[in-house]
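Design request, tokens follow.
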């Protein structure tokens, strides 16, 4: 493939589907809000079904990556809907709460499910969220960094501890994912028909149990 010229008209543009998975209340929606809007809300309500947002990352002057992000609900009653969102996903962020030991077990179960049923080339990142809580009070940490890192290495995952509240490692997480994706196959930037976009100044769309979009 010929190398694109360094101009905005010929910037390589790659578009990928990303899904967030994890137990309820680990901070999936907060991570997305921080990444997309650079905001944090202490009192976010639980996601119903899944929320859809988009965000782009400029990897360098020639390459832009657009993420179509599906933020799934963590409640057990929505678990059966998850395959609808991770099907054909190019990448996934599996989130756990470093102050809740059981949340890593749930994250490991999601990783196994993705490795068994999702796209075989899917890029999976493990994110240990709520780093700010453990930084402020080390006694709150329930999952040691070394243990999670060892698991991620064994499972072939990207790994970072993050804080949606302080923004620590949030941008780094999504950038690391983007760098693992096949952007060398990207074409010139152009409109992508059939993809629903979300205005970043509006509330994210949320899918209900029937998969229909609603503004919530």
């Amino acid at each position: 493939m010929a190398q694109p010229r360094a101009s905005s008209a010929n910037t390589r543009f790659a578009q990928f589907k990303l899904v967030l998975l994890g137990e309820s209340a680990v901070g999936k929606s907060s991570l997305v809000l921080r990444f997309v809007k650079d905001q944090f809300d202490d009192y976010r309500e639980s996601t119903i079904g899944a929320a859809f947002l988009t965000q782009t990352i400029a990897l360098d002057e020639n390459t832009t990556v657009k993420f179509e992000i599906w933020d799934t609900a963590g409640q057990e009653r929505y678990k059966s809907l998850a395959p609808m969102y991770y099907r054909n996903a190019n990448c996934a962020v599996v989130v756990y709460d470093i102050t809740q030991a059981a949340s890593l077990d749930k994250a490991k179960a999601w990783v196994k499910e993705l490795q068994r049923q999702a796209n075989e080339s899917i890029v999976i990142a493990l994110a240990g969220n709520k780093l700010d809580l453990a930084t402020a009070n080390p006694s709150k940490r329930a999952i040691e960094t070394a243990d999670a890192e060892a698991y991620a290495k064994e499972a072939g995952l990207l790994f970072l501890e993050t804080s949606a509240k302080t923004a620590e490692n949030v941008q780094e997480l999504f950038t690391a994912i983007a760098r693992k994706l096949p952007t060398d196959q990207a074409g010139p930037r152009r409109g992508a028909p059939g993809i629903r976009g979300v205005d970043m100044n509006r509330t994210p769309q949320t899918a209900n149990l029937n998969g229909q979009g609603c503004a919530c």
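Comment from the thread starter after seeing the answer: thanks! The longest helix spans residues 101-117.
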